[in-house]
Amino acid sequence: MPAAEKIIHRYFHQLISGCGNPQCSNIYCRSSSSFKYDKTILEDRNQVAAEVIRLSSEYAPLCDDVNLIEENEQKIKINNLTENNLQELISQCEKTNDWNILEKSMEIIFSNRFNLLTSFLKVDFTENISNKSESSPTASATPKSFFIHDPRITLDNDEITLDFDVMKSTMKLLRSYEDQISSTIHKSLDLLLNQLQYELKSKRNEFETDANFFNLFLIIFELPYLSDPLFLFDVARLFYSILTNLSIKAQAKFVRILSKYTTNLDAYVVHVQQYITMHTLRWCDRVGIETNSEELLSSEPGMKEGLNTLRLLFYANLLGGQRDSSEIIDIERKNYEKTERELVKRRQRHNDTDSDTEQQQQQQRNEQQQSDSENVLVASTSSPTPATRIKTRKATSEIEDTDSPYDNALQIKLDLKPNEYRRGQYAFDIFINEYANEKLEIKKEYLNFIQQPTSSIEFSFIYYPFFLSTINKIALLNIESKARMYLQRRSIFVHNIFSSVRLNPVFKINVRRDHLIEDALISLEYQGIEQPEELKKQLFVEFEGEQGHDEGGLSKEFFQLITEQIFSPEYAMFMTNEETRCLWFNPSAAEDLDREYTLIGMLFGLAIYNSIILDIQFPPILYRKLLGKFGTFEDLATSHPTSYKSLKSLLAFNEKDEGMTVEDAFSLTFQVAITDAIGSQLLFDLKDGGDTISVTNANREEFVQLYSDLLLNKSIQRQFDPFFHGFLLVTHDSSLRKLFRADEIDLLVAGSHVLDFNQLALAAEYDGGYSKDSPTIKNFWTVLMTFTDEQKRKFLRFTTGSDRTPIGGLARLKLIISRNGPDTDRLPTAHTCFNALLLPDYSSIEKLQEKLSIAIDNAEGFGLR
């Protein structure tokens, strides 16, 4: 150990632990009865570190007994850790049954930066490090002499001096002796990290460019103690704080190192998730989760450090995962930018048309907004609108990508876009802490987030979409949508006060049941396509000639009916894959259906925006395409499984083993046929003159790539482009693409197919005299549990307007069963807008089953909506 650093180390030990001599007279030693400091100073290790630096510069007295540390170092003769010297130490301890030497050795290693950083070095770095160490000055050493620089290790590359395999095998051996060294490791790391945190404030660049610096984080992450409750609230927090306060360039290197070298990233994630869980528990204990405390989980000290560290691991997981080729990514980005430009042009045309009217009204609006600048928008549980002043910053959905809360400097530095990755090294679910998400009050977190200027927000869960459960993401999207709807209504209210031109505060669609698609097209084209801002209003559906106020049920029924019609074979816009039972675009659909495809895209967006589940099923690739992705060979596995298997066998074919060529075995050319909605074969040349180009062993990969591109992209581009455009008309300004993965958008649009009616029963509520113990209610659940899946889906459609399970399970539906009079021959009815079933008190289980079956079999247009 360099002399100057050794002295600092001794002062730390003297202030924190003392020399152990009860007769000590040194006022700078904790063992002394004359200790000059208030011992509460020891609770703030930053103060301790500052005092250590001052004492060393003033040559304050050092206790002789502290020299025992040096004696132990010389006696043990260990300055860094290797697998061999650890085995020797353990053997020595086992022979003598004295573990003191192992404890002292671990203290020497883990309390001293230089010793720890020079442990487990690769062979080709060891000699260089040794020479640097020997040539370092002693007592007069400057801080520069404590750092090792090597031209092979820079912040711009991914090289490290650590021998990962040796380090991991040594740590595995060390874990076998946790009981003997746990407290020693805790004390030593506490000392090391406090000193490091203090020194980083003035020497960050020197540390980050030290050839061995990143070894420290990798070694500590391999220790099992980070998940130990003894470590979680001090050592672990300090460790995560130091790591996440490095420069962006250094953090980026650490992420790249993890993705390149680690094979157990999931173990690191477990450490951090345990940390987050324990801090969540502490928050619950402190504020009392059942109280009316306004303190948010994001205010818990230490939570920020945990989430920032988890984000580093998430990025490493992405980099170690699967991403499409750079060529495909570039094409996708350019294509999406082109689509966005078209949207901007459309909106600009609309803005130019309205500019004269807007100028006349702007002064009146400004005056009204000025007078309302102190008004607060109040949110409640039943109507979660943003409690924010008029002059707050923009909501998340209105922020440009460059200022998006879902992007950050590290992500930009790494050129990472999460949705460009098909999968990570590990499943994305390991980054979601279910316990913390259950306690997380996402509505309050959002309101707190939107109320503050970006510069004043120290921490918010909104910044970490990878951590949020799908349920919380949906809640976040919903409150964002409701906030936008509220602001739209408020803006219109102000406009209507000062203008003779009255604006509608909702997006109203008036349709006839027998002209549903035609009427919907007219409404969406007139109000939506030409005036995209209309789509941000709350949807309100009216069926012509029918009474009823749309509280959600009419909208559900509208979506149900229109999807049934527009996806039917009669329109031939889509076709059903017989193997997967999924819908797909008909490649030979009529050329004049752009309006209809745009309508369907808008319906997808409106369903998401208004939290309505659609009764449709598309393959996963559709939802990747809605995020701006292109379909590739891998996507055929779920969209065209037969074609996928055939192409996979083509790629796997071995001419030598089979004794024949690819040409003879498959007889394929670069001209292919695909089937349309009516079973006709459509011929396509994958290359010019494709019918004359045979598929060979040499060009088969090109064939697979081109054929996959044809099936999923080129053959349906004419149909998909207007569909995608309609979808973006509704969702372009939302946070959808930043918050959700493709598989989550699938659930968001179409819900889940899993029907767990036990969940529905547990969450059900009763009204009008019924309780869970009422005989009719017991009969009801007995009947319902005996229904087939098809009958259960009919029941869901009858009572809720949809036969799909929302994300989070059927418990989230909160079915309400109300007593609708005594025994009768009347059928049950339902209020789908409230998920309410009106159930007469039938006299027998047989009668209940008969009446309920009749009702659900005739559900369309039945009952009150």
Automatic annotation (TrEMBL):
<dbReference type="GO" id="GO:0061630">
    <property type="term" value="F:ubiquitin protein ligase activity"/>
</dbReference>
<dbReference type="Pfam" id="PF00632">
    <property type="entry name" value="HECT"/>
</dbReference>
<protein>
    <recommendedName>
        <fullName>HECT-type E3 ubiquitin transferase</fullName>
        <ecNumber>2.3.2.26</ecNumber>
    </recommendedName>
</protein>
<feature type="compositionally biased region" description="Low complexity">
    <location>
        <begin position="358"/>
        <end position="375"/>
    </location>
</feature>
<feature type="compositionally biased region" description="Basic and acidic residues">
    <location>
        <begin position="342"/>
        <end position="353"/>
    </location>
</feature>
<dbReference type="InterPro" id="IPR042556">
    <property type="entry name" value="AZUL_sf"/>
</dbReference>
<keyword id="KW-0808">Transferase</keyword>
<dbReference type="InterPro" id="IPR032353">
    <property type="entry name" value="AZUL"/>
</dbReference>
<dbReference type="InterPro" id="IPR035983">
    <property type="entry name" value="Hect_E3_ubiquitin_ligase"/>
</dbReference>
<dbReference type="InterPro" id="IPR000569">
    <property type="entry name" value="HECT_dom"/>
</dbReference>
<dbReference type="Pfam" id="PF16558">
    <property type="entry name" value="AZUL"/>
</dbReference>
<feature type="active site" description="Glycyl thioester intermediate">
    <location>
        <position position="833"/>
    </location>
</feature>
<feature type="domain" description="HECT">
    <location>
        <begin position="531"/>
        <end position="865"/>
    </location>
</feature>
<dbReference type="InterPro" id="IPR044611">
    <property type="entry name" value="E3A/B/C-like"/>
</dbReference>
<dbReference type="GO" id="GO:0000209">
    <property type="term" value="P:protein polyubiquitination"/>
</dbReference>
<feature type="region of interest" description="Disordered">
    <location>
        <begin position="342"/>
        <end position="402"/>
    </location>
</feature>
<keyword id="KW-0833">Ubl conjugation pathway</keyword>
